[in-house]
């Protein structure tokens, strides 16, 4: 036991030293980062006292210290990750990062709870300090860091508005610590490294990041023209002919790529070069010599955007797109897709080993996301039944790829029926219950897509989807909660599903979402409650949760759509219920309802007017 304790103490010392030696954080996570570093540093006296102690310790002490080691290791990894990588990506994913800080905080608090301090040979002063630190972790446990509202709003407006206010990017430049051309060059390199590390998979967020980076560069140049000119002059003196980064060169021609595409091994090539290689009859990847699973070429939009940004920053003429050199193969309907490549992927799905199936499902997922022609070709080739079979795969990543491929295919209206006829609904519901969080989110989105067809609403409800959707609504990520809510709303248009949702206990979680304006789910919660309130069981369940004070407050201060839904719910609750009418009257809702009946949406005006009429009737009875 002595050697085990000594090894643990040494590891804990290294971890705390590692946290203490981290540099100052200059990202949007600065506050969470600093709080965690400060609290971890305060654990140092405990470890120092234990190091000096010769007292033998029992298994319970060792187990507690091991839990602390594991939690501090997670803390160090999180803190390092926050200080590295793209600052823009970190801002876009701040909700997920906040959740990671919360999880680490809970892990450390749990570890400290498992250490029996009365069995440790430590001074009274150190014990008091550790109790204080433990109390700090307890207070922080379960409390998600409040988001920077201005930052969230600026990021949303920067992405959505046609011509965003330049002040938005000035504020973002300050908040993200991207104030100079040098800062932006480092950010550009961080984005480039990130893309290379994941093999160039063109996720949507990278397009947003590249757009924001360009806008921030324009902002910095506008604010600091002299500094920018100076830096550009230095660059020109130092690199009159800028060195092209190796990752921007085609491995075949060694020239700057104009139209980069990804092959099945994950390597990127200039389209015309790799197409010539394939047309010559080669079946391998030129760089790795691995056999290609298929010959489909996936555009690397992210790398293309980064090359354009690099060219702009270095005064290099932007490469002109030479167009695709691929031989387009036209099949039924003249679709622009590579049918031979798709058929090769289907062969892997049907007969390949688990690794090949996972890779093929992942490729189909990307191809189905890319364009409408691919969705038609993939379905016509017979992929849907094979993907449905993979929903039952024991490999979580394969399952994720399969359900997401079906989601992308379901965008095509004709494919919805094929998916349902292949028996997919029970398997999608099973993924929704038991899959990874990403798989569950995409299963919810798939069910929403399929439920657009009315008869599918019945089948999805009968398959037991609603309790699983409610669970995702409670425990999912922000995106998962929204996917679950949109699916529940659409399914509840069918009367039978309203009853299922109410009996599965949907009202309490909806009320919790309604009471948390900062959670971003108020719109969805009100919309679902409005549709449930039209059914007698839904109305009864909502009444039991005492919602009227919240509804009246929304009618006073909410958005136009939320005021409309709140008025609709209030009207349902007050119709035929004198007690609810009296509660509404006693809360002084008349003035807000009158204002809504004059200035709300058409539906809001009708509902508010109807509630006012009911209030007048109850007043007449009382008088």
TrEMBL record:
CDD domains: RING-Ubox_PUB (cd16664). InterPro entries: Adaptor_Cbl_N_dom_sf, ARM-like, ARM-type_fold, ARM_PUB, Armadillo, PUB12-19-like_N, RING-Ubox_PUB, Ubox_domain. Keywords: Repeat, Transferase, Ubl conjugation pathway. Its EC number is 2.3.2.27. SMART domains: ARM (SM00185), Ubox (SM00504). It catalyses: S-ubiquitinyl-[E2 ubiquitin-conjugating enzyme]-L-cysteine + [acceptor protein]-L-lysine = [E2 ubiquitin-conjugating enzyme]-L-cysteine + N(6)-ubiquitinyl-[acceptor protein]-L-lysine. Pathway: Protein modification; protein ubiquitination. It is an enzyme of class 2 (transferase). GO terms for molecular function: ubiquitin protein ligase activity. Pfam families: ARM_PUB, PUB10_N, U-box. One of its GO terms (biological process) is cell surface receptor signaling pathway. Residues 243-317 form the U-box domain. It comes from the Eukaryota. ARM repeats lie at residues 382-424, 423-465, 505-545. PANTHER family: U BOX DOMAIN-CONTAINING, U-BOX DOMAIN-CONTAINING PROTEIN 14. Functions as an E3 ubiquitin ligase. This is RING-type E3 ubiquitin transferase. It comes from Anisodus acutangulus.
């Amino acid at each position: 036991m002595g050697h085990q304790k000594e090894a643990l103490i040494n590891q804990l010392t290294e971890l705390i030293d590692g946290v203490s030696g981290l540099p100052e954080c200059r990202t949007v996570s600065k506050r969470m980062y600093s709080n965690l570093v400060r609290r971890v540093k305060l654990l140092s006296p405990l470890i120092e006292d234990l190091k000096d102690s010769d007292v033998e310790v029992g298994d319970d002490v060792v187990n507690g210290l091991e839990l602390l080691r594991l939690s501090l290791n997670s803390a160090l990894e999180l803190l390092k990750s926050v200080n590295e990588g793209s600052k823009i990506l970190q801002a876009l994913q701040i909700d997920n990062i906040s959740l990671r800080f919360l999880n680490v905080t809970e892990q450390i608090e749990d570890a400290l709870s498992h250490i029996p301090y009365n069995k440790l040979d430590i001074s009274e002063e150190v014990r008091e300090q550790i109790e204080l630190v433990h109390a700090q972790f307890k207070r922080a446990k379960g409390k998600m860091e409040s988001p920077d509202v201005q930052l969230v709003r600026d990021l949303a407006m920067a992405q959505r508005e046609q011509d965003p206010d330049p002040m938005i990017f000035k504020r973002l430049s300050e908040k993200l610590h991207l104030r100079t051309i040098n800062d932006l060059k480092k950010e550009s390199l961080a984005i480039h490294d990130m893309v290379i590390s994941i093999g160039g998979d063109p996720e949507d967020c990278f397009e947003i990041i590249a757009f924001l980076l360009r806008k921030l560069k324009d902002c910095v140049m506008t604010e600091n023209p002299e500094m920018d000119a100076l830096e550009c002059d230095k660059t020109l003196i130092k690199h009159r002919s800028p060195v092209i980064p190796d990752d921007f060169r085609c491995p075949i021609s060694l020239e700057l790529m104009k139209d980069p595409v990804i092959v099945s091994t994950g390597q990127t090539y200039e389209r015309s070069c790799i197409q010539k290689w394939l047309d010559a009859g080669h079946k391998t990847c030129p760089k790795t010599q691995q056999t290609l699973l298929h010959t489909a070429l996936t555009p690397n939009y992210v790398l293309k955007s980064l090359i354009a940004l690099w060219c702009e920053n270095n005064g290099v003429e932007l490469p002109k797109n030479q167009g695709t050199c691929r031989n387009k193969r036209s099949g039924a309907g003249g679709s622009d897709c590579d049918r031979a490549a798709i058929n090769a992927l289907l062969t892997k799905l049907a007969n390949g080993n688990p690794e090949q199936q996972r890779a093929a499902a992942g490729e189909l997922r990307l191809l189905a996301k890319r364009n409408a022609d691919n969705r038609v070709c993939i379905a016509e080739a017979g992929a849907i039944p094979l993907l449905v079979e993979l929903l039952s795969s024991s490999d979580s990543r394969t399952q994720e790829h399969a359900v997401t491929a079906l989601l992308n295919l379901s965008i095509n209206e004709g494919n919805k029926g094929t998916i349902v006829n292949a028996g997919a609904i029970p398997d999608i519901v099973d993924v929704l219950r038991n899959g990874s969080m990403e798989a569950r989110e995409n299963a919810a989105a798939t069910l929403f897509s399929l439920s657009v067809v009315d008869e599918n609403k019945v089948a999805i409800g009968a398959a037991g989807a609603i309790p699983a959707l409610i669970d995702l609504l409670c425990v999912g990520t922000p995106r998962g909660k929204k996917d679950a809510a949109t699916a529940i709303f659409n399914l509840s248009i069918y009367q039978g599903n309203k009853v299922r949702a109410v009996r599965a206990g949907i009202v309490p979680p909806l009320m919790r979402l309604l009471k948390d304006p900062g959670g971003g789910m108020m719109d969805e919660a009100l919309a679902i409650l409005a549709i449930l309130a039209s059914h007698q069981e839904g109305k009864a369940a909502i009444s039991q949760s005492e919602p009227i004070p919240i509804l009246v407050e929304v009618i006073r201060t909410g958005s136009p759509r939320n005021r409309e839904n709140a008025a609709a719910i209030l009207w349902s609750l007050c119709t035929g219920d004198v007690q609810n009418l009296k509660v509404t009257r006693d809360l002084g809702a008349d003035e807000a309802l009158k204002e809504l009946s004059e200035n709300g949406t058409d539906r809001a005006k009708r509902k508010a007017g109807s509630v006012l009429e009911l209030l007048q009737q109850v007043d007449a009875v009382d008088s």
